[in-house]
Amino acid sequence: MELSLIVIFWYGILHAFGPDHLTAIADFSIGKNKRKTLLITSLFAIGHGVSLFLFAKVLETVAISEEILAYGDIISATVIIAMGVYLLFMVGLNRIQLRKHIHEGKEHIHIWFGKSHEHGEDTVANTSSLTLGLLMGAGGVRGMLITLGAVQGGSVDFSLVAAFTIGVMLVFGAFGLVMLYINENFLGSLTNVRRAFMTAGVISLVVGTNILLS
After folding, report:
1. Each residue of 132-190: pLDDT tens digit?
2. Are 16 and 167 in contact (CB under 8 A)?
3. Cβ-based neighbour number of residue 192 at 10 Å
4. In angstroms, rounded to a whole number, what is the distance separating the alpha carbons of residues 186 and 23?
5. Is the pLDDT of residue 202 over 90?
6. 76-79-85-86 Cα dihedral, nearest 10 degrees
7. Which helix (H) or strand (E) is 112 found in, with range?
8. Model confidence, pTM
Protein backbone atom coordinates (compact mmCIF):
# COMPACT_ATOMS: atom_id res chain seq x y z
CA MET A 1 0.00 0.00 0.00
CA GLU A 2 2.86 2.39 0.84
CA LEU A 3 4.34 1.90 -2.64
CA SER A 4 0.96 2.63 -4.19
CA LEU A 5 0.72 5.89 -2.27
CA ILE A 6 4.20 6.95 -3.33
CA VAL A 7 3.55 6.16 -7.00
CA ILE A 8 0.21 7.97 -7.10
CA PHE A 9 1.74 10.90 -5.19
CA TRP A 10 4.43 11.29 -7.85
CA TYR A 11 1.82 10.89 -10.56
CA GLY A 12 -0.03 13.81 -8.97
CA ILE A 13 3.13 15.91 -9.15
CA LEU A 14 3.75 15.04 -12.80
CA HIS A 15 0.08 15.50 -13.68
CA ALA A 16 0.04 18.98 -12.11
CA PHE A 17 2.74 20.19 -14.49
CA GLY A 18 0.28 19.94 -17.40
CA PRO A 19 0.18 23.26 -19.26
CA ASP A 20 -3.60 23.40 -19.01
CA HIS A 21 -3.48 23.26 -15.21
CA LEU A 22 -0.73 25.85 -14.82
CA THR A 23 -2.48 28.11 -17.33
CA ALA A 24 -5.72 27.92 -15.35
CA ILE A 25 -3.93 28.78 -12.12
CA ALA A 26 -2.19 31.72 -13.77
CA ASP A 27 -5.52 33.03 -15.08
CA PHE A 28 -7.04 33.00 -11.60
CA SER A 29 -3.97 34.13 -9.65
CA ILE A 30 -3.01 37.29 -11.53
CA GLY A 31 -3.32 40.29 -9.24
CA LYS A 32 -4.13 38.30 -6.08
CA ASN A 33 -2.34 38.59 -2.74
CA LYS A 34 -0.58 35.68 -0.98
CA ARG A 35 -3.60 34.40 0.96
CA LYS A 36 -5.92 34.52 -2.04
CA THR A 37 -3.36 32.94 -4.36
CA LEU A 38 -2.69 29.98 -2.04
CA LEU A 39 -6.42 29.55 -1.38
CA ILE A 40 -7.22 29.50 -5.09
CA THR A 41 -4.49 26.96 -5.87
CA SER A 42 -5.56 24.74 -2.96
CA LEU A 43 -9.22 24.81 -4.02
CA PHE A 44 -8.24 23.96 -7.58
CA ALA A 45 -6.19 20.97 -6.37
CA ILE A 46 -8.98 19.76 -4.08
CA GLY A 47 -11.57 20.07 -6.83
CA HIS A 48 -9.28 18.19 -9.19
CA GLY A 49 -8.76 15.35 -6.72
CA VAL A 50 -12.45 15.03 -5.88
CA SER A 51 -13.39 14.98 -9.56
CA LEU A 52 -10.85 12.26 -10.39
CA PHE A 53 -12.00 10.20 -7.42
CA LEU A 54 -15.64 10.35 -8.50
CA PHE A 55 -14.87 9.58 -12.14
CA ALA A 56 -12.57 6.72 -11.19
CA LYS A 57 -15.22 5.22 -8.90
CA VAL A 58 -17.79 5.34 -11.69
CA LEU A 59 -15.37 3.76 -14.16
CA GLU A 60 -14.67 0.90 -11.75
CA THR A 61 -18.18 -0.39 -12.33
CA VAL A 62 -19.20 1.09 -15.68
CA ALA A 63 -17.40 0.24 -18.91
CA ILE A 64 -16.84 3.43 -20.89
CA SER A 65 -15.15 3.49 -24.26
CA GLU A 66 -11.91 5.34 -24.98
CA GLU A 67 -13.81 7.68 -27.31
CA ILE A 68 -16.10 8.81 -24.50
CA LEU A 69 -13.19 9.26 -22.09
CA ALA A 70 -11.55 11.50 -24.67
CA TYR A 71 -14.36 14.00 -24.10
CA GLY A 72 -12.71 14.77 -20.76
CA ASP A 73 -9.83 16.39 -22.65
CA ILE A 74 -12.33 18.32 -24.76
CA ILE A 75 -13.99 19.66 -21.61
CA SER A 76 -10.64 20.77 -20.19
CA ALA A 77 -9.62 22.42 -23.46
CA THR A 78 -12.98 24.19 -23.81
CA VAL A 79 -12.74 25.61 -20.29
CA ILE A 80 -9.21 26.90 -20.91
CA ILE A 81 -10.20 28.48 -24.24
CA ALA A 82 -13.26 30.11 -22.65
CA MET A 83 -11.07 31.61 -19.93
CA GLY A 84 -8.68 32.95 -22.56
CA VAL A 85 -11.49 34.54 -24.55
CA TYR A 86 -12.92 36.09 -21.38
CA LEU A 87 -9.58 37.61 -20.33
CA LEU A 88 -8.93 39.04 -23.80
CA PHE A 89 -12.49 40.37 -23.86
CA MET A 90 -11.92 42.18 -20.53
CA VAL A 91 -8.63 43.62 -21.77
CA GLY A 92 -10.16 44.73 -25.07
CA LEU A 93 -12.99 46.58 -23.31
CA ASN A 94 -10.66 48.12 -20.69
CA ARG A 95 -12.65 46.41 -17.94
CA ILE A 96 -9.60 45.61 -15.81
CA GLN A 97 -9.07 48.10 -13.00
CA LEU A 98 -6.30 48.79 -10.48
CA ARG A 99 -6.31 50.82 -7.28
CA LYS A 100 -3.54 51.41 -4.74
CA HIS A 101 -3.89 52.44 -1.11
CA ILE A 102 -1.81 52.49 2.07
CA HIS A 103 -2.94 50.27 4.96
CA GLU A 104 -0.93 50.02 8.18
CA GLY A 105 2.05 51.62 6.50
CA LYS A 106 2.09 49.13 3.61
CA GLU A 107 0.95 49.70 0.05
CA HIS A 108 -1.85 47.43 -1.15
CA ILE A 109 -2.97 46.91 -4.72
CA HIS A 110 -6.49 45.87 -5.68
CA ILE A 111 -7.17 44.53 -9.17
CA TRP A 112 -10.66 43.72 -10.39
CA PHE A 113 -12.88 43.39 -13.46
CA GLY A 114 -15.60 45.91 -14.22
CA LYS A 115 -16.24 49.51 -13.22
CA SER A 116 -16.59 49.12 -9.45
CA HIS A 117 -14.79 46.93 -6.95
CA GLU A 118 -17.12 44.32 -5.45
CA HIS A 119 -15.94 42.35 -2.40
CA GLY A 120 -17.98 39.40 -3.59
CA GLU A 121 -15.50 38.93 -6.44
CA ASP A 122 -13.18 37.01 -4.09
CA THR A 123 -15.92 34.49 -3.37
CA VAL A 124 -16.61 34.15 -7.08
CA ALA A 125 -12.92 33.51 -7.77
CA ASN A 126 -12.73 30.86 -5.04
CA THR A 127 -15.87 29.11 -6.25
CA SER A 128 -14.71 29.30 -9.86
CA SER A 129 -11.31 27.78 -9.07
CA LEU A 130 -12.95 24.87 -7.22
CA THR A 131 -15.44 24.36 -10.06
CA LEU A 132 -12.67 24.55 -12.65
CA GLY A 133 -10.71 21.91 -10.77
CA LEU A 134 -13.76 19.65 -10.81
CA LEU A 135 -14.32 20.14 -14.53
CA MET A 136 -10.70 19.63 -15.51
CA GLY A 137 -10.50 16.44 -13.46
CA ALA A 138 -12.35 14.77 -16.32
CA GLY A 139 -9.32 15.30 -18.52
CA GLY A 140 -6.98 13.42 -16.19
CA VAL A 141 -9.06 10.40 -15.33
CA ARG A 142 -7.55 8.14 -18.02
CA GLY A 143 -3.99 8.68 -16.84
CA MET A 144 -4.96 8.16 -13.23
CA LEU A 145 -6.72 4.88 -14.00
CA ILE A 146 -3.70 3.63 -15.93
CA THR A 147 -1.48 4.47 -12.96
CA LEU A 148 -3.87 2.84 -10.52
CA GLY A 149 -4.04 -0.23 -12.72
CA ALA A 150 -0.27 -0.52 -12.50
CA VAL A 151 -0.04 -0.14 -8.73
CA GLN A 152 -3.29 -1.53 -7.35
CA GLY A 153 -5.31 -3.28 -10.02
CA GLY A 154 -7.38 -0.18 -10.75
CA SER A 155 -8.93 -0.07 -7.26
CA VAL A 156 -9.60 3.41 -5.95
CA ASP A 157 -9.79 4.46 -2.31
CA PHE A 158 -9.62 7.77 -0.48
CA SER A 159 -5.98 7.41 0.62
CA LEU A 160 -4.81 7.12 -3.00
CA VAL A 161 -6.81 10.15 -4.07
CA ALA A 162 -5.50 12.08 -1.05
CA ALA A 163 -1.91 11.21 -2.05
CA PHE A 164 -2.64 12.34 -5.61
CA THR A 165 -4.22 15.58 -4.40
CA ILE A 166 -1.29 16.38 -2.12
CA GLY A 167 1.11 15.89 -5.02
CA VAL A 168 -0.99 18.18 -7.20
CA MET A 169 -1.32 20.73 -4.41
CA LEU A 170 2.45 20.96 -3.91
CA VAL A 171 3.05 21.88 -7.55
CA PHE A 172 0.06 24.21 -7.71
CA GLY A 173 1.15 25.92 -4.49
CA ALA A 174 4.71 26.37 -5.78
CA PHE A 175 3.42 27.81 -9.04
CA GLY A 176 1.07 30.03 -7.04
CA LEU A 177 4.13 31.46 -5.25
CA VAL A 178 5.70 32.20 -8.64
CA MET A 179 2.53 34.05 -9.59
CA LEU A 180 2.64 35.87 -6.26
CA TYR A 181 6.19 37.04 -7.01
CA ILE A 182 5.03 38.33 -10.38
CA ASN A 183 2.06 40.06 -8.77
CA GLU A 184 4.19 41.81 -6.16
CA ASN A 185 7.07 42.84 -8.40
CA PHE A 186 5.71 43.40 -11.90
CA LEU A 187 2.05 44.39 -11.63
CA GLY A 188 2.36 47.80 -10.01
CA SER A 189 0.76 49.65 -12.92
CA LEU A 190 -2.46 49.25 -14.83
CA THR A 191 -0.53 48.91 -18.10
CA ASN A 192 1.44 45.94 -16.77
CA VAL A 193 -1.70 44.36 -15.34
CA ARG A 194 -3.47 44.53 -18.69
CA ARG A 195 -0.40 43.14 -20.44
CA ALA A 196 -0.32 40.25 -17.96
CA PHE A 197 -3.99 39.41 -18.53
CA MET A 198 -3.56 39.70 -22.29
CA THR A 199 -0.58 37.33 -22.17
CA ALA A 200 -2.53 34.89 -20.00
CA GLY A 201 -5.47 35.06 -22.40
CA VAL A 202 -3.32 34.34 -25.45
CA ILE A 203 -1.54 31.45 -23.69
CA SER A 204 -4.92 30.02 -22.67
CA LEU A 205 -6.10 30.05 -26.28
CA VAL A 206 -2.89 28.41 -27.50
CA VAL A 207 -2.89 25.71 -24.81
CA GLY A 208 -6.59 24.91 -25.18
CA THR A 209 -6.40 24.78 -28.96
CA ASN A 210 -3.35 22.53 -28.81
CA ILE A 211 -5.23 20.09 -26.56
CA LEU A 212 -8.14 19.97 -28.99
CA LEU A 213 -5.86 19.37 -31.98
CA SER A 214 -3.62 16.77 -30.33
Report:
1. 776 666 665 555 555 555 445 556 677 777 888 888 888 888 888 888 888 778 877 87
2. yes
3. 13
4. 18
5. yes
6. -150
7. strand 106-113
8. 0.73
